[in-house]
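Quick start: read one record
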Amino acid sequence: MATVPARDKYRSFLHDEGDNVQWRHGGPPTYDVVNQLFEQGRTKEWEEGSLEEIVQNAVKTWEMELSHKVRLQDFKSINHEKFKLVVNGGEELKGEETLKLGSYNALLKNSLPKEFQYYKADEESFESSHQAFRSAFPRGFAWEVIAVYSGPPLIAFKFRHWGIFEGPFKGHAPTGDKVEFYGLATVKVDENLKVEEVEVYYDPAQLFAGLLKGPSMSDSPTQASACPFHSTT
């Protein structure tokens, strides 16, 4: 008899989907490892049912769909027609564009000259970007809400993202240190609480300062393989 996977405490729409949902790796991901990192390292533990907890879980759900669902039509967290993402005041990305790029490339894409870019999103695919960060953070890249400043329909909040740098990243050896950054975001939702617009503001240098301080690896590195079913955020 098939074992029914435990329901994730922080993400909706993982195990209550019909067979018509197309998952990127053939089935729903598991978040056991990154959930443990999150619970061990979070600085806030929000009361169940609070606005902070609702916002935190909603963002985790959106990220899960973006990273693991193949078709935009299968997303339940967004308004498909109106969704757009803007990072640091840059290019506006619609739903299909964001899905094609993937979460890492969408959040790290910028218009700086190539020589000033820590990470060249234009040269990365969806798969290569996720592999790079799965390699660097084998236990995942945890995310939490630090504060919520306003409720629906325009939600404003502060967040923290962190992981333990235990695997190679782009030719840099791991340091074993915690790498983290903070940011601000606004999320506009419709009357059904579906996301219409997301704006994110953060300093990528906070992230890459930790990743690039690892010593350069002399030989051409082979990035550590990680199971795609174990998600990083």
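The first strand starts at residue 84 and ends at 87.
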